[in-house]
Amino acid sequence: MEIEKHPKYDDYDYPTTSPNKQSGHPGHTTKEQDAQVFQLRSQLEQAGYRERLDTLCMLRFLRARKFNVEQAKQMFIDCEKWRKEFGVDNLVRTFEYKEKPQVFERLTSNQDGRPVYIEQFGKIDLSAMYKITTAERMLQNLVVEYERLTDPRLPACSRKSGQLLETCCTIMDLKGVGVTRVPSVYGYVKQATAISQNYYPERLGKMYLINAPWGFSSVFNVVKGFLDPVTVAKIHVLGGGYQNELLGQVPKENLPKEFGGTCDCKGSCALSDEGPWQDPQWTKPPKWAQSQGEKPTSTTTAAAPQPAQTAGSHAEGLAAARQAPMGS
């Protein structure tokens, strides 16, 4: 069933019932959990917060802290403090990643219509990369991509699929990551993961680490040390025989050829930006643009949600994004 919408904060125009029927997910909450949403929102209002208090957001923070209201409240407060210090609201409207053609990753969609990010760490030489960009700009772009994932990408995907989609799938290709390159890649992954886990909770559906090199398990054991156990359970480390697993998640026509799919975009899959968020039938201007009176990317009214469709058309998926969301 759809969630009971709060008259002030819940102005959703897309489905609000999660396909994940586990307790605590939208449309599958108990009366006690609904009361905890009310309690968390009320305490945050009393503390002076007025933004991001919608029910779906409250539930994500509560799930991330196992419905401990005090812990979820502190996580939200820490997140808002970080957003102000990092300048997130202004960054998403003004940031331009001009070096994207030289520093990029890929985005497609899986069988459920969720965004899928593909990061090829074997091609990352951070020493060389920092000659054309900086660690700060890489992390800024990561944050911008998370904001755009939140709106307009996931709402558009939800409208198209006819069900609430809140998460993404990430594929990290470790082919070519030698021992000498592990420290630099590890350092970046640690920073990026800290941002995504602490400030974008419950956005990761699954993560696949493919072509994992010899000795990677030792490095991964270190990485797991600063991740929530719930996040760790979403991570799957695969060797070279990963194709069947990936094709079970991503339609062949949406998966690049080098990963066992058939996609071969004209002009490069990596620099494409196609998806439901580009289709006037499903997209709407992001709220962060509307709130500032900026010219929207599309003014077409989205169609009413349709029954879930089989993902797989090329339009469901390829888009550029620099850093892959990697949090819990």
The SSE order reads HHHHEEHHEHEHHEHHE
Helix coverage percent: 25-40%
Major β-sheet strand ordering: 5-4-3-2-1-6
The major pleated sheet works out as: 6 strands, mixed
In summary, what is this structure?
The protein is α/β, with parallel strands linked by helices. It is built from 11 helices and 6 strands.
Explain what you see:
The chain is of the alpha/beta class. Helix content is 37%, strand content 9%. It has a 6-stranded mixed β-sheet. Strand 3, helix 7 (182-199) and strand 4 (204-210) form a beta-alpha-beta unit. Helix 2 (55-64) packs across helix 3 (69-86). The longest helix has 27 residues, at 135-161.
SSE layout:
Layout: H1 31-46, H2 55-64, H3 69-86, H4 88-94, E1 106-109, E2 115-120, H5 126-129, H6 135-161, E3 168-173, H7 182-199, E4 204-210, H8 216-224, H9 229-232, E5 235-237, H10 243-247, H11 287-290, E6 319-320
Parallel strand pairs: 2-3, 3-4, 4-5
Antiparallel strand pairs: 1-2, 1-6
Write out key terms for the chains shown:
six-stranded mixed β-sheet, alpha/beta, single chain, 328 residues
